[in-house]
Amino acid sequence: MDLVLRSRSYPQLESNFFDLSEAVFAEGSLSVYQGKGARRGKAERLVNHRGPMIPPQKNYEPTRSAQKPSGYAEIETASQLAQGAPEFLHFVREVVKMPEALAPAVAEAIRQQKWKIAPNPLGTIRTAAHQEARRMGIQ
After folding, report:
1. Residue 60 and residue 54: Cα distance in Å, rounded?
2. 3 state DSSP class of 24
3. pLDDT tens digit string along 102-135?
4. pTM above the 0.70 mark?
5. Cβ atoms of residues 138 and 105 within 8 Å
């Protein structure tokens, strides 16, 4: 098997060599192709790490607190009231801070129960009440 050396700057070096020790090389005169994966191969990376990293097991801590958000108790109480009751109208006016004309929309928003899982239940009721008011044709 012959090794053929090619040099751009030294054409006299172009010849067949069996032993590389016989060749005289000038620094930078030869370009050497290192081959695929010559920079850093997979085997070298796996030897350093010895397999995939497994993170330590974490203790589960719930992200939501056990306390109910503000307004939860008032909404729970209002959900038991009739839509036309004076206490419900007071709830719509003072707690939810919406006009009494939107009381049917607020009642429907409470019935949907999206507020039970929301971080801001009063904001959820306000948003849902506006959406329901548009569906009902109120406003």
Report:
1. 17
2. coil
3. 999 999 999 998 998 888 999 999 999 999 999 9
4. no
5. yes
